[in-house]
Design a protein that fits this description.
Elements lengths: L6 H12 L9 H7 L2 E2 L5 E2 L12 E3 L3 E4 L2 E3 L4 E3 L4 E8 L5 E4 L1 H6 E8 L2 E3 L6 E4 L3 E9 L3 E7 L8 E6 L1
Parallel strand pairs: 3-7, 4-7, 6-14
Antiparallel strand pairs: 1-2, 4-5, 7-12, 8-11, 8-13, 9-10, 9-12, 13-14
Length: 167
Amino acid sequence: MKKTMTLAAMILAATAATAPAQAEGEDDEAVTEAAAAPAAGGRTLNLGFAGLMDRANRTDLAPINLSAGVLNSDGAYTLQSGGFYRIDIVSDGTQEIAVEGPGFFRSVWVNEIVINDLEVRPLGVDSIEFDDAGTVTMSFIAIVPGQSDIRIRGASGDTQRALFTIE
């Protein structure tokens, strides 16, 4: 009979094989520091209990601000594949407005979307619509390298989109 391993079992086995052995009397903090893994872009990831999504690994991006027909951001966003990010999308309520980004949402894994302190963990996202003023906070892991955008639904102008490049 041929044995098969799940992906989780393979990752667990590989982690156990490469994890540093804890010497007698050594504290957990020293082992956690030794288990830190180098990441793309020269960053070091702290792969503790929360793994990649540990708060120490998260990068907070400049917010996207929405106003009547205008999407303002601090310019193009450059992300590292495998990086953990959080971004706020803020509407001032001057107009009912929706943002979409099917290419972007297919290039990332969305961890959660927070609206009014309610956390949503979606399997997929196509768009987010604001009927009034408010903030949506989204945390995600960048996966697929390439360029994509989040834009005002149906718009194509440069002032109506935020460009994301995943390296």
